[in-house]
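From the pipeline queue, job 12 of 40. The input is one protein chain; the requested action is below.

Action: predict structure.
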Amino acid sequence: MATRSLVRTIMVALLATLTVAGTTVLAAPPAHAEQAGKLLLVLDSSGSMAEKAADGKTRMEAAKASLNTVIDSLDPAANVGLRVYGAKVFDRSAGNACADSQLVVPIGTNNKAALKGAVATFKPFGETPISYSLEQAGKDVGNSGQRSIVLISDGEETCSTNPCTAAQKLANQGIDVRIDVVGFDVAGKAKQQLQCVAKVGRGQYTDVKDTAELTDQLNQAKKRASEPFEVSGTPVQGAPDAASATPITAATWTDTMPAPGKKKFYRLDRTMDRSTFWAGLTMTPTLTPDKNYAFTSMKVVPQDAGYPTCGSGYPYAWTTRGRTAGLMTGRANSAGRRDDSITECQTSQLVLQIEADDADDAPDLSKQKFQLNVFEEPPVEQESSLPTAVPEDKLPWTPIKPVKATPVVTATSLTKAPSVQPGTHTFDIVPGEFRVLKVPVGWGQRLEATLSTGRLPQYKGKDDYDKMELTLLAPLGGEANARYDKPPHADSDIVWDDGVNLAAGTREVRYRNRHSLDEASVAAGLAGEYYVVVTLSKNPTSPANTIPVTLTLQNIGTAGTGAPTYEEPSLPKPSGSPSAEPTSDPTSASPGDPTSEASQSSRPTGANTPRDGGRNWPLIAGLTLLGLALGGFSVWYANRTRRRP
C-alpha cells in the first residue's frame, strides 16, 4: 500500500504541475493561439532511488509508474521533455560524475512513445548532480514563453555546488521559469536544499510522504501558477507601404510587429458607405531592464493622401524594478476628430498604419505577435441630434456598496472572458498574471469598479514589491480609465502586507465621444461589453502565492439614453483589386460585436428602430456581416503597465 500511495501521490503532483506555470499541456491550444508553454521533467536516477518502500518495491518503480500514467494522459500537442541525472556514471571519483545529466527526450510534441521508451530504461545507478541538471534544464526550456521544470529527487546534492544557488542564478538571469520539486520522503539538509530550489524558482515543494496534505497543496498550486496571454486570429502580413496595403475586413487577425522605425499598412475595405472602422491592437511585449519601454502608434488615414489623420492610438507598455510588463493595448477609429475631416474620413478609402518606436533604447519587437481586432460600424441617422461628447472635466465618484459576493471563473484572454452583471465578484490572482472578465455597458451609462484584497501577510518585510492594477478596457481594446474627482482609491498600487484597495471608472458612453480629443472619452464612444482587467506584476523575488480578490462593479445611468439610430447599409463603390490576400479565412464572428444580434441580448444598449420600414440595424448587420466572416470584436485586450512605478 505504501508504494501504491507513493505512486498515486507522485502522479497527482505531476498531473497538477502539468497545468501550472502557464503550460496547460493537458489541453490542446486554441486555433491560431500562441503555442502552449514548455514542461521539462527532471528525474533522479541516482543509486538511492533503489531504496525500498514499505512493501519492498523501490522508489524508482514508483516514479516510473507515475511518469507512465502522466505520459498516457498527455495531449499530443503538449510541449514536454525529459532529462535524467545519475543514470550513467556510477563512481563519484569519475571525472564526469558531476556532469552526469542527459536530455533524453527534447521538449516537443507528439512524443509519448519516446517519453515512455526512455522511462523504461531508467535504473538506480549514480550520483545526484542536481545543480548541473538545473543549469542544463535552463538551456533546455529556452528563454521565451511560459516554462516549467519539475524536479523529482530523493536526496541532496552529491557534488560540490548548492542546487539552491543554481536555481537562484536561473531566476536572476531573468528566465521566467517555474521550478516545482517533488521530494521522496527527504529530511534534513536534503529537504532544505529542495525546498530552497522551489522557493527561489517561484515554485512549489511537495513531500510525497503525506497524500492528503499533498493533494491539498497541489490544488492550491493549480491556482498559484500564472497563465499566458493568448494571441489568436487569422495570420496576415501587413505591407511596407500604403499603396500596396494588405486588404482586411472586419475580423480578428494576427501579425508580427514591424522593426523599430518601420511601418505596416492594412487596407480597410468598406462593405457599406460612410461606415466607421474601429481597430484594436494588443500584445505582450518582452522587455528587458535596458529596454524597458515599448511604444507603438496606430493611425487610420486616407490611402491616397495619407492625411488627415482620422483616428489614432498609442499602445505602450513599460516596466521598472524587474517587474513583468503588462499587455500593450490600444485602439484607433476612422470617425475623425475635427469637423473638416469627418466627411473625408467617412468617404475615402482608408488604411491602418502601425509604426514601431525607433528610439535608441526601444526594444525590437519585430518577431513578436500582436492581435488586431477590426470592426466596421454602420452610419447613424442625424448624428447632430445625439448628446455631445462628455466634457473632459473630472467626474464625481458615485459610492459603490458591495453586495453578496459571487465567485467567478475569470480568464487570461479577452476572448474567453466570462460575461458578468454589475455586482460583487470574487476570484484569485497570482504574481505575473492578469485576470479578465467583461460587463455590459450601454449608451448613457458609465462603469465604476472597486477592488480589495484584505491583508496579505506574505508581503510583510519584502524588499521588492509587486504592483496590482485595475484597468477598464473599451470593447475593442485600449484603456478606458477616466479621471475622477476624489475617487476612494487609485487604479494601481504597490502590494503591501496590509492589502490592496483600487478604484477605476469610465466616462459615460456617448456616440459623439469618438470625435473628442480626450482619450478616455474616445474609449467610451461605443456601447458593448467592457473588459475589467486585474493585473498583478511579478518580480524576481515575488512570493509564490495566491491573492483573493473582491471586485464590485456598478453601472451609473439609464441604459439606452442617447442611443443612435443606425441606417440601413448601402454598398460602397468597388475600390479595385486587392494587392495582397490574407493567408486564410478571417476568424468567425463573435458575440462581442456591439451591433450583432447576439450581442444585443447580452447588453442593455440597443439601437433605435430606423424610420425606413422599421428594420433594426443589429439584425441587418448580423445577416450581412456573417457572410463576410465578421470576427470583429471579441476583444481580448488586457492590460498595459500603468504610468506610475
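Job complete. The radius of gyration is 27 Å.
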